[in-house]
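haha ok so turns out i had the wrong file open the whole time. this is the CORRECT one, sorry everyone. sequence first:
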Amino acid sequence: MFPIRNTSLRRALRRTGLVTALASAGVLVAAGAAFAHVTVHPGSYAKGATDGTLTFRVPNEEDNAGTTKIQVVVPTDHPVLGVLVTPQAGWTAQVTTAKLKTPVKTDDGTITEAVSEITWTGGKIQPGQYQDFDVAFGQLPADVDQLTFKTVQTYSDGKVVRWIDEAKEGQPEPANPAPVLHLTKAASGPADSASPSVSPAAPQAATASSTDSAARGLGIAGLVVGVLGLAAAVIAIRRGRAPRS
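then structure:
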């Protein structure tokens, strides 16, 4: 490699390298801060979705203590039906149910109770590690845009972190945001879903029509040229037969 003799150029390169390093560090710090939150995955489901799984990801953000207890509050004003906890090695899950203010009618009957809280204890999430807790559900509500799962994280040194703050539109993210599951518009029915498969054919039909029109135009042009050629030939023949003076 050739040495760089230009002092100004060397300084510029050093400044560029420093800016790049700081930018990279900023991205890592931002990513680390986001990862430190308790989150739910996937981040969205269709309204009224059935037979799915929610994963609560719990990272340990302490340096000298382990996470020993996780409490997740499941909303009951818009209940999640048919909740089942997946066994997690080293952890014991305790499920609490509550009576619903408004019973939910389903094909299997009217449901008057639903899970309101899940607590995991007995295990330990070490510093620098995270743990996934899986929960299966039978059906999500269809009358709300999102579900907030307020979560309490307890450490071995007695520290308690409450992930219960709800984000507000137009304001910065709170320090301890609660995990949020966004509920999107349900998929279209069979009649509606058939429309997209038909729509792409429209441009093809237009292309075919354009091609036919072009072919007809070329055919007509060829016919005109042929007629003109024939007329020219007839005129030439007649001139050839005309008596010379």
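The mean pLDDT is 76.
again sry for the mixup
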